[in-house]
Amino acid sequence: MKYQIMTDILFTLLAKRRVSAAELAAKNGCSVRSIYRYVDELCISNIPIEIARGANGGIYIPDNFKLPKNFLTREEYARTLDAMLAMHAQSGDEELGRAIEKISAQMKSERIDSAITGNIMVDSGTWGGEKRFSEKLRLIEQGIGERETLEIDYSSRGGERTKRRIQPHLLLYKQNIWYVYAYCELRGDFRTFKLGRMRAITKTGDHFEPKAFSRDDIPLSFWNKDPISARFEISAEALPFAEEWLGVESIYEQDGKFFADVILPDDEMLVGIILSAGAGFKVLSPDSLRERVKEEAKRILEN
Fold first, then answer.
1. Using an 8 Å Cβ cutoff, are 64 and 139 in contact?
2. How far apart are CA 69 and CA 72, in angstroms?
3. What whole-number distance in Å separates Cα of residue 223 and Cα of residue 268?
4. What is the third-level CATH fold of 114-217?
5. Which pLDDT score is estimated for 99?
6. CA–CA gap between residue 252 and residue 20 (Å, rounded)
7. What's the rounded Cα separation, in Å, for the pair 24 and 110?
8. Which fold has domain 2-109?
């Protein structure tokens, strides 16, 4: 009985996204206290369920959460749902009606993982992965198009985690990273948010009037730390990596060798990116960056 109720809570949230504890308790014939206990167990199982207090509160699940892509194929969903609807029309069984609700909820959650705009197709998922990032991208794009305020669970570069309501205005794509340029209601100003740092996105149902901004207002050269001028020597085997990371226009050939002179953000990720290129990627300058790469390589060897 316990797991049936937990399953019902999950699929009800997938269908409605937000529901009160009292409604779930009445539906499953148990106490509100039991519902909260079951919700805690679902959270332990890595289901990102949240509880909001107040007049507009309730139990909710982020809009970017969905069950694994291979839960059922779309054809299997359609065949199953058709059969169940036919049976329900004859019997009127309430349990069957709830099962239909669950199947419908999961079928609706199965989205196309590629974004197509005009003549451009963007598949932001990883090779062979669940492509859950694409769902976040779809929700942000939908929020921009429908002018809907979104609530995000956001982790800053420093590890600070906050809940924010944002009014998304523009998607940015720079150096293989997606950002959204949005008005942050918490800060009362425009901010640039990295989609990869959004743990959860929830549609609020509130709509906003877009605020005027120009291209010059968008921080296309934003870096959290001072930039660093670096020079690299690149072997033939490391050239594809360098071209993807630094851009082909930054690389030149001299005396049969490849080099790159670039300005990069001097953050905690820089050394890791350099090391990921392997032994064919050599730091020529500055000396301080060379030493940081050497020290990190020693630490890796020790581990």
1. yes
2. 7
3. 12
4. SH3 type barrels. (2.30.30)
5. 65
6. 62
7. 24
8. Arc Repressor Mutant, subunit A (1.10.10)
pTM of the model: 0.53
C-alpha 109/C-alpha 65 separation (Å) is 8
- pLDDT exceeding 70 applies to what percent of the chain? 75
The pLDDT of residue 220 is 72
Measured CA to CA, the distance from residue 267 to residue 224 in angstroms comes to: 8
- Residue-averaged pLDDT of the chain: 81
Work out the pLDDT band at 50, boundaries 50, 70, 90: confident
HEC readout, the chain = CHHHHHHHHHHHHHHHCEECHHHHHHHHCCCHHHHHHHHHHHHHCCCCCEEECCCCCEEECCCCCCCCCCCCCHHHHHHHHHHHHHHHHHHCCHHHHHHHHHHHHHHHHCCCCEEEECCEEEECCCCCCCCHHHHHHHHHHHHHHHCEEEEEEEECCCCCEEEEEEEEEEEEEECCEEEEEEEECCCCEEEEEEHHHEEEEEEEEEECCCCCCCHHHCCCCCCCCCEEEEEEEECCCCHHHHHHHHCHHHEEEECCEEEEEEEEECCCCHHHHHHHCCCCEEEEECHHHHHHHHHHHHHHHHC
241 token code pair: 């990596």
Q: What is the domain partition of the chain in residue ranges?
A: 2-109, 114-217, 227-302
Closest of 176, 13, 196 to residue 108, by C-alpha: 13
Query: At residue 234, does pLDDT exceed 70?
Result: yes
Look at residue 17 in the predicted model and tell me its pLDDT: 78
**99-131 per-position pLDDT tens digit:** 677 666 655 555 444 554 555 566 655 555 445
Query: In the numeric block, which tokens belong to residue 224?
Result: 């959290």
- Summarised one tens digit per residue, pLDDT across range 191-225 is 999 888 888 899 988 999 999 888 788 877 655 56
Sequence-distant (6+) residues with CB within 8 A of 90 are: none
pLDDT of residue 155: 86
